[in-house]
Amino acid sequence: MSARDLIQEALHSLEANKGRSLLTILGIVIGIASVIAMTSLIGGIQNSLVNSLGLNAARMVQIYSSQELTESDIEKLQKLVPQIEQIGIVDSAYTEYKTGDKSYTVMAQGVDSDMLDAVGANKLVAGRTYSQAESQSGSRVALISRNGADQLYGNEQDAVGKTIKVSNGEVQIVGVIDGGSDSMGSLTLYMPRETISGLFGDENPSFPSVTALAAEGTDMDELCKTIESKVRAMKGIAEDDEYDSVSATSMKSAIDALNSFMGAFSLIMGAVASISLLVGGIGIMNMMLTNVTERIREIGIRRALGASRRDITAQFLAESSALCVTGGLLGVLIGYLLAWGLTFFAASSGIMSEFGATRTITPSFSITTVLVAFAVSVGIGVIFGFYPARRAAKLDPVECLRYQ
Length: 404
Description:
Blueprint: H1 3-16, H2 18-24, H3 26-53, E1 60-65, H4 71-80, E2 84-99, E3 102-110, E4 124-127, H5 132-137, E5 141-145, H6 146-153, H7 156-159, E6 163-166, E7 169-177, E8 186-191, H8 193-200, E9 209-214, H9 220-235, E10 246-250, H10 251-294, H11 296-304, H12 309-349, H13 367-393, H14 397-402
Parallel strand pairs: 3-8, 5-7
Antiparallel strand pairs: 1-9, 1-10, 2-3, 2-9, 4-7, 5-8, 6-7
Helix pairs in contact: 1-12, 3-10, 3-12, 3-13, 10-12, 10-13, 12-13
């Protein structure tokens, strides 16, 4: 039989038993849809979490020293380590902001304008960033993340120009940035360091840290080791000192850990979904065995008219493969729609914002995943359809013609 004849026969067989065929492939549909939906959802959440860290997150290094680093120490460190593109002190302070019956925890980040790139606060959604002159004069201006703007004002555009009470004064929002790690009930504001000093004073001290941005292509692990070595040398801190310590940590390690976790989670979900595929395969084998029993006389007539055992095997394999291909196509379509529904629910419900993800989550569809899932469905049709097909091919034609 030609390939065209096999396909026509397989489709005719599916059409003759629509209800039974649909129920049979339900396991395949559920399995493929689960794989597509969950991998796409996990990929979208992963991208959202990474984006919330900022475009330069993988190149950021946080430097800690028990002996506080001064401005001159930082300038010296940048000269000693040429792989550092930018470096500076970032101040942090906390306060409460109440509006109506709602209360928010505000983390104020003191970042001068030339360090906005280094902390990932450079991708504007609305408004503008503050200038170097505003940084030096301590102007009461601030940037807010998109998630914070949505919490307070409903959208980004309405946030620009508004004022927020921070500690002993108010700051005006001049821009909205993409990203940020705000969860429900918390806000992050970026403002000049001089502004932080003026607003919080000595009664509410800030907590300074040093942030560095590495040049593109830098080996982050080696850079962290180099920075620690140079800081110890500058401060006279021995590596085994029990009282003083130095550490340099890269955001790349956190991102790698996140990717590893999400990858492991995807693998687990894929393993769970594969159970549905296995159940679906068993259902297809059961249906094909039933078909063989119901069509014994037909098999005898085909053999009598010259069909070989190979033709009978190919015919039943084509039918089982057609079932799985149909299930695979339906599974891909349903998985695609389900992924969009799940991401919409996760974003609109605010669940993911608790983990620091942005409110916009887009499913991450991988053509490789779709092709692999589809190939698996075809493979199931061949594997689970082979035994019924061979059983049909081995039937005695004479006994088949006598079968009632």
